[in-house]
Write a structure and sequence with these properties.
heterodimer, A: 287 residues, mainly alpha, 3 domains, 67% helix, 0% strand, B: 191 residues, Rna Polymerase Sigma Factor, Chain: A, 2 domains, two-stranded antiparallel ribbon, 9 helices, 2 strands, disordered N terminus
Chain lengths: 287, 191
C-alpha cells in the first residue's frame, strides 16, 4: 500500500513503546490489509526478541583493578594540557589587559582583534607544549625505497581493492537475499556469471599485486571470495537452486560479508594497512 | 591521588555533601562501561569512551545543577561524546579487527574462550549488524533496546524529538532485520 510509510511511527511504538487503544486499532486495521507490513512487523519482532540481550564480553578482573589508576592518569594528562590555556585565560581576565588595543581601534574591534591574537597564540603554545620544539628542517626530497608503493600507486591499489570488494558484495547480496520461494530464473544468472568471471580475473591480479606482509588479511579475504566467485561463475542457467544454496552456505560459513564490512570499516576509520594511502570512500558501484 | 568533587545523589534535588570522586567512579563505572560497549562494540573504544565521560563529568561537576538524575546526565554525556567521536572517526574498531584476524586478546580483557563458539559467532554477527546503523540510529537503539530507557528518556538523552526517536528506531530495526537475515540459521530466525 502507498501509505505504508505513514504507519512507521505506529510500528515503532508497537515495537518499542506502548500504543493507545485507538492506535492499536488503527495499526491492526492496516496490518490486516497489508501482508507486506504484517510480515515485516513479525520479522522485526522476531529479530528483536532474538537479540534482546546484549552480548558483552566481561572484562578481566585486572581491567577493573587498574581502571581508577588509568582514569586518574588521563585526568592528570588532561589537566596538564589545559593548564597553559587556563593560565592564559586567567591572565586575560585581569582588568586592563585587553584595553590597550581599544585606544587604537575602539572597544569592539579591540576585543575581536585581541581574541584572534589570543587564539593564535594559544594554538602556537599548545602545539609547542604537545609536540615539542623541533627545529625546522629544510624540506627534502625522499624517494620511495625500492619495493614500496608511491602514494599514487597506493591510491590506485586502494581504489582497485575497494571497487573489487564493492562489486563482490553487491553480487553476493543478490544471491544471498534470494528467498527459497522465489524463482531463480528471475535472477539474471548469466549476468552474474559474467560479473563473477570478471571478479575472478581481478582476484588473480590483486593477489599478485598485494605482496606486502601487512596485506595478508586482504589476500585471505580475496582467496575466500574467489572460491565463492568460482561457484557463481559455474552456475547453470535457469533453475539451479541447489547450487545457489551452496553459494549461500559458503558465504555464511566463511563470513564473507562480515569480513568485507570489517575491511571497509577499517579503511573508513583510517586504520589502513601500511603502504596503502587512505582514500575517500567511493560511491556504491553497480554491476 | 584523591580527587574530591561534590557528588549529587539521585533523584536529585540539591547537592549532597562532598564525597571522593573515586567513589563516584566506582559506583558508575560498570554501567557506563556497559553503555559504552553497546555504543562502540569493542573493549578499547568502550574504555576510552567511559573514561572520557568521567573526565567530562569531573570537569562539569560544578555546573551540574541537579536538574536530572545522575544516570541521565552521564548517559547524555556518553551519547554526545560517542556521536562526536564517530563524526571525527576517532574510534579505532581495533578489537573488532583483532577478532577478524584472530589475534591474541588485548591485555586486560578476558581470554576469548567463546571466540570460536556459537556465542562468539553470534556476537560477531550482531555486532556486524549493529555496525550497519548510523551513529544516531545505534545510539537510539542501544538506549531503548539494551539500556531500557523509555522513548521519552531516549529523546531527552539525545536531545531530539520523540518522533525522531521512533523514526531512528524504525530504521535501525529494519537495517538489523536485513543484516541479520544473512545469519538466520545461526540466530534461529525463521527462514
Amino acid at each position: 500500500m502507498n501509505n505504508c510509510n505513514t504507519y512507521e511511527p505506529l510500528i515503532a511504538e508497537l515495537l518499542f513503546g506502548a500504543l493507545s487503544p485507538e492506535e492499536q486499532q488503527q495499526l491492526a486495521v492496516h496490518l490486516e490489509a497489508c501482508p507486506g507490513c504484517r510480515a515485516m512487523v513479525q520479522d522485526m519482532q522476531t529479530t528483536l526478541q532474538r537479540i534482546a540481550e546484549p552480548i558483552r564480553p566481561e572484562p578481566a578482573p585486572v581491567f577493573w583493578e587498574g581502571y581508577h589508576e588509568r582514569l586518574e592518569a588521563r585526568i592528570a594528562r588532561d589537566a596538564r594540557r589545559r593548564e597553559p590555556v587556563e593560565r592564559l585565560l586567567e591572565w586575560l581576565r585581569v582588568p586592563g589587559r585587553l584595553n590597550g588595543a581599544a585606544l587604537l581601534f575602539g572597544p569592539r574591534w579591540a576585543y575581536q582583534l585581541s581574541a584572534a591574537l589570543v587564539l593564535l597564540g594559544m594554538g602556537v603554545l599548545i602545539g609547542w607544549m604537545v609536540f615539542g620544539n623541533a627545529s625546522p628542517e629544510a624540506p627534502q626530497i625522499v624517494e620511495a625505497p625500492q619495493g614500496v608503493e608511491t602514494p599514487v600507486q597506493a591510491a590506485s591499489m586502494e581504489a582497485r581493492t575497494t571497487r573489487y570488494l564493492e562489486r563482490s558484495k553487491v553480487l553476493l547480496l543478490g544471491l544471498v537475499n534470494l528467498e527459497p520461494e522465489q524463482d531463480p530464473s528471475l535472477l539474471n544468472l548469466s549476468h552474474k556469471r559474467q560479473v563473477a568471471r570478471e571478479l575472478i580475473d581481478e582476484s588473480n591480479a590483486l593477489r599478485a599485486d598485494l605482496d606486502d606482509a601487512d596485506q595478508r588479511l586482504l589476500r585471505v579475504l580475496i582467496e575466500d571470495l574467489e572460491v565463492i566467485l568460482l561457484q557463481i561463475a559455474n552456475l547453470e542457467a535457469g533453475h539451479d537452486l541447489p547450487a545457489i544454496e551452496m553459494v549461500q552456505r559458503g558465504v555464511d560459513q566463511r563470513a564473507i560479508l562480515l569480513k568485507i564490512n570489517l575491511t571497509e570499516m577499517r579503511r573508513e576509520a583510517g586504520s589502513v594497512q601500511p603502504a596503502v594511502t587512505p582514500a575517500a570512500r567511493p560511491d556504491s558501484s553497480t554491476l | 591521588m584523591l580527587l574530591t568533587v561534590t557528588l549529587v545523589a539521585e533523584p536529585l534535588q540539591r547537592r549532597s555533601e562532598p564525597k571522593p570522586f573515586h567513589d563516584f567512579v566506582e559506583r558508575y563505572k560498570r554501567p557506563l562501561y556497559a553503555l559504552a560497549y553497546d555504543l562502540t562494540g569493542n573493549h578499547h573504544d568502550a574504555e576510552d569512551l567511559s573514561q572520557d565521560v568521567f573526565i567530562k563529568a569531573y570537569r562539569g561537576m560544578d555546573d551540574f545543577r541537579g536538574e536530572a538524575q545522575v544516570y541521565s546526565w552521564l548517559y547524555r554525556i556518553a551519547v554526545n561524546t560517542y556521536l562526536n567521536k564517530r563524526r571525527k572517526k576517532a574510534l579505532r574498531f581495533r578489537q573488532l579487527w583483532d577478532d577478524f584476524s584472530q589475534a591474541a586478546p588485548e591485555p586486560g580483557t578476558q581470554p576469548r574462550p567463546d571466540q570460536h563458539t556459537e556465542a562468539g559467532t553470534m556476537r560477531g554477527h550482531v555486532e556486524a549488524a549493529l555496525q550497519q546503523l548510523s551513529p544516531r540510529e545505534r545510539s537510539a537503539f542501544v538506549l531503548r533496546h539494551y539500556q531500557d530507557l523509555s522513548l521519552k528518556e531516549v529523546a531527552t538523552t539525545m536531545d531530539i524529538a520523540e518522533g525522531t526517536v521512533k523514526s531512528l528506531l524504525f530504521r535501525a530495526t529494519q537495517k538489523l532485520r536485513t543484516a541479520l537475515a544473512f545469519y538466520r540459521e545461526d540466530l534461529g530466525l525463521p527462514s
